[in-house]
Every structure is written in C-alpha cells, then in structure tokens.
Amino acid sequence: MPTSQDMTTEHDPGLLDALQHQVAVFARRAEQTRLGGTGQLRNSMDRAAYLLLNRLDQEGPMGVKALAAGMGIDSSTVTRQVAPLVDTGLVKRTSHPEDGRAVVLQLSPRGLARLEEVRSSRRDLMAQVTEGWTAAERESFCTLLTRFNSALSARQSGLPASPEGESSPTS
Predict the structure, then answer these.
(1) Which residues pair with 93 in a beta bridge?
(2) Using CA atoms in the order 153, 68, 105, 46, what is the torsion angle rounded to 10 degrees?
(3) pTM of the model
C-alpha cells in the first residue's frame, strides 16, 4: 500500500490542491444554499431529514439500528433526527410484526408526498445548475461524484472503496 509520501510524489500536488479547494468551495456553497431546490420549497427540508426519508422510501420500513447502519451514523443520531419527523407526521413508528417490543420506522403517506415535492424541487435546481451541460457531462459528473462519495464513506468506515464507486443514492 502506498504511503502518504508515495501518494504525494505519484500525484500532481497542484492538482490535488485545486481539487481539495473545489471540494471546500462546493461544501460551503452546498451548506449556504442547502441545495434545497427552487421556488417555495427552496431550503424547505434539511439534509438529515431528506436523507432519512429518502432511505425509508427506497428500502422500506426498518428499525433504528438498520437505518443507522445503512446511513453510516450512530443510532442515537438517527433517533434524534427521526423525532421531529415523527412529530410532524412524515414518519410513523409501528411495532415490529414479529417482535412487538421493537419499533419500526416507515414513511407515512404525508412523508412520501412531502419527499416527492422536495425531490421535484431539487431536480429542478439540478436542471438549472447544469443547464448547458450535455447529458454525457451530467452522467459523468454524477458517476464521479458517486465514486468520490463512496471513497469518502469507505475511508470513514475503514473499508476499502469499491473501484466502481458504487453507492446507494440514499447515502
């Protein structure tokens, strides 16, 4: 495995400096705008809520531990983030069908409707931001960003990154 020194000499330091700078600018702009979408729905759902609702929509009802594991975060964090979603009726808590003591979280019909509104607004934002890009450029950017996010996630969890950069859209 290459050492940090090997990586520095193997890769162009100027290019890596430019890359880390652009990632920092992206993070700042994403936080400033929250990439929330367009129109009335701009900034209408925070990142944590969006990711939780999206995962429940994609994977179906699940317990807190499974949700936390799938998102790569602590169960206590999921519990804290889910509480307001339950309070506002976007997520329902139900008893596990096989173990009545266990709690299962699932997207409510209201939660699904709200998620679809936000997705549509964010889709419009992505279309506006990438207006003038070709379909191939959008696809390439999405592929590379997915690969980048997968590598960051793998590094955080201590696992090797997959070469294809496969990652769930809900991560």
Answers:
(1) 105
(2) -60
(3) 0.73
Kindly report, residue by residue over 110-150, the tens digit of the pLDDT: 999 999 988 888 888 889 999 999 999 999 999 999 999 99
| H or E segment and range at residue 95 | strand 91-95
Hey, what are 124's tokens?
Answer: 């419009």
- Residues paired with residue 107 on neighbouring β-strands, in sequence order: 91
Q: What is the DSSP string of 51-97?
A: HHHHHHHHH-SB-HHHHHHHHTS-HHHHHHHHHHHHHTTSEEEEE-S
The single-letter DSSP state of residue 39 is G
Asked whether the beta carbons of 95 and 102 are under 8 A apart, the reply is yes
CA-based angle 24:158:51, to the nearest 5? Answer: 55
The residue with tokens 């400096």 is 17
b/e sequence 6-17, b meaning 16+ C-beta within 10 Å: eeeeeeeeeeee
Residue with tokens 């705008």: 33
The Cβ-side half-sphere exposure at 23, using a 13 Å CA radius, reads 11
